[in-house]
Amino acid sequence: MVVLFLSLLLAHLLGDFLLQPTTWVNDKKKRKIRSKYLYYHIGVHLLLLLIATQFSFKYLLAVILIALSHFGIDCAKLYFEKKKTAKTWFFIDQLLHLMVITCIVYSYFPFEISIENLYSQQNLALITALLLVTYVSAIILKVLLSKWSEQIVKVDAGNTNNAGKYIGILERLFIFFFVVLNFWEGIGFLLAAKSIFRFGDLKESKDVRLTEYILIGTLLSFGFGILCAMFYKSFIV
């Protein structure tokens, strides 16, 4: 089961990301179903699927179904995707392809998903820790740093840029997994990298409050990441 799933997934990744030139993508967006590259793309997938299944007659129906579904999903994306929804449709497209592959594998190797296992102590602890280290800690940090941020950051009412928020979330996720994997050196590398990138801002600015804001924010963010990881590890020992 696992071998079949990985083989089909590898074929999909190769066909969609490695063996699909940008010229093909642009031509498909422009000419849609009339684009010859759409059919080249499906042909590449068909060949990769045959190779992945070792040209076995047993999986021939699966190969055909995946190729046809890929064509249908790609056509739907080409006609319904707009400039504003491009990112959303990218993930919908990939999720649908993954669901098709999963269903095909299930038809050959039925498997059961135990709901009880989903509610295990380790899984609940992991979900809780990930929520804490991402969005919960982001809100807590925003509250704790409000004293400095109100004085330093000039917020535009029409500004919806949350880049700083997501950078912080990624930073804490890295720290979380570094601690879980006992790769404490990674935290040092991450701190050094952040210091290098922030050095320019601190050098150009004469505002002591900005220095305090960055330093306190960094220490709190790293601290939350470590604490959440230790919280999770206490449930898996």
TrEMBL record:
Q: A Pfam family in this protein?
A: DUF3307
Going by the entry's taxonomy, the superkingdom of the source organism is recorded as: Bacteria
Q: Which InterPro entries match?
A: Phage_phiKZ_Orf197
List the taxonomic lineage: Bacteria, Pseudomonadati, Bacteroidota, Flavobacteriia, Flavobacteriales
The residues forming the signal peptide are none
From the Swiss-Prot or TrEMBL record, give the protein name: DUF3307 domain-containing protein
Transmembrane segments in this chain: where? 43-68, 89-109, 124-145, 173-193, 213-232
Organism annotation: Flavobacterium seoulense
Q: Which UniProt keywords apply?
A: Membrane, Transmembrane, Transmembrane helix
